[in-house]
Specification:
Structural class: mainly beta
Number of strands: 8
Radius of gyration: 15 Å
Distance between the termini: 19 Å
Shape: globular
Strand order of the largest sheet: 6-7-1-2-5-8
Amino acid sequence: MSDVNIRPLHDRVIIQRIEERKTAGGIVIPETAGDKPQKGKVLAAGPGKYENGTLRKLDVKVGDQVLFGKYSGTEVKVNGQDLVVMREEDIMGVVEG
């Protein structure tokens, strides 16, 4: 795992992008081509969000691989690592398997 010294608040999560350099057919994609990956690993998750006085815990947890929108979240640099901070609602889904 990574040494992230940041604790997200409320319904925010800290995500490290997962670099995938091959297509489904096995073609290697050079670093200069394409956009930033929209898949990442959850490094830290907040406790949840209060709704009607009740804490609703997050559906994602540390270690989950998730998909998110191209322009989701805010990019930050912590301990030399490029990370993305976003609300759970900006995550489109959890990759199973």
